[in-house]
Amino acid sequence: MYEKIPDDDYRKLLFQTRGQLYDIMTPLEKYGQKPFVDGAIEEIMEIIEKFGMRVRGKEIPMLLGERRNPR
Asked: What is the pLDDT of residues 55-71, one digit of tens each?
C-alpha cells in the first residue's frame, strides 16, 4: 500500500497538476475552446483524484458524475 501524504503536500500536488494541465491545453484557447478547456481540466482533475484514491485502496468508481459521451 501507498502511504498517505500530508494534506499540504497533497494540495500542492493538485495545484501543480492543474497548472500543468492548463499549460498543455492553453493552445486550444486560440481556436475558441476556452470554455471547454476549463471544464475539461476540472474533469481530468476529478479522474486524477479518483485514481489516487484507488491506488491507495479506496473502493470508488472511476466514472465521472455524468457521462459526457453517451454511447
From this structure: 888 888 888 766 555 54
Any domain includes 65: no
Ranges 4-8, 11-15, 62-66, most confident: 11-15
Range of the domain at 31: 7-55
Query: Rounded CA gap, 59 and 56, in Å?
Result: 9
Count CB atoms within 10 A of the CB of residue 1: 6
Domain count of the chain?
1
Cell numbers representing residue 68 in the block? 459526457
4 contact partners, CB below 8 Å, separation of at least 6: 56
Contact 56, 2 (CB under 8 A): yes
